[in-house]
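Structure first, sequence second, as always.
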């Protein structure tokens, strides 16, 4: 897997997490702990993408 492929894979995961967070936020009784965990994972992926881009 090339660096570009890895970055693209991470971008797909980042987008998926964004959708999961949005879906959880708009549920009748959102799970705050789940939202926080998803946001942490999204940030970790964003940081990894930034490291790989530089």
């Amino acid at each position: 897997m090339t660096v570009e492929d890895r970055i693209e894979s991470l971008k797909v995961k980042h987008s998926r997490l964004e959708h999961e967070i949005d879906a959880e936020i708009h549920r009748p009784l959102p799970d705050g702990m789940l939202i926080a965990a998803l946001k942490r994972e999204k940030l970790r992926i964003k940081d990894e993408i930034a490291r790989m881009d530089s």
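Margin note: The radius of gyration is 13 Å.
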